[in-house]
């Protein structure tokens, strides 16, 4: 199965919407990115062997959060403009825990851009966070393409709001 980043982003956004979660928009961008930060924290726990889910699944969750957010706000326009660039730039980095920090840094910069109502800058920072998520997975020999698709399939069957009372996620 091929991994079409734009199609997967569309699918991630659609699955979240079908499960009752609030769609990403400019007003809730900070909250959506905070969920990506939470996934990174769980990835750190997974890297240390302390989390309930393995590192690969948490990196997939991070990528799904970023893909859903960026597609939910910018739609096909984002996919048409950036998909090939992101896919071509995935390369290998040394697998150490500190490599989670560039992803977090980019997400925080997107939040700051949102604070200043700088839409295109926020999009660029989210794109960089997504790129770094794939780079880290590659460095750790995690097939993030497969992990994201598997996690999407799992989420598809989880049901409305995954049993949560609040639909912001």
Distance between the termini: 28 Å
Tally of distinct domains? 1
Question: With helices defined by DSSP (H or I, 4 residues minimum), what is the helix count?
Answer: 6
Name the overall outline: globular
- The tally of beta strands, per DSSP, is 0
| pLDDT < 50 stretches | 87-96
Largest sheet: none
Order of helices and strands: HHHHHH
The structure class reads mainly alpha
Radius of gyration: 15 Å
Average per-residue pLDDT, rounded, comes to 81
Helical content stands at over 70%
Which helices and strands appear, and what pairs or packs with what?
Layout: H1 5-18, H2 29-48, H3 55-89, H4 100-115, H5 119-139, H6 144-156
Key structural traits:
169 residues; mainly alpha; 0% strand; globular
What would your notes on this structure say?
The chain has one domain (5-159). It has helices at 5-18, 29-48, 55-89, 100-115, 119-139, 144-156. Helix content is 70%, strand content 0%.
In short:
α2 crosses α3 and α4 packs antiparallel against α5. The protein has 169 residues and is mainly alpha-helical. 70% of the residues lie in helices and 0% in strands.
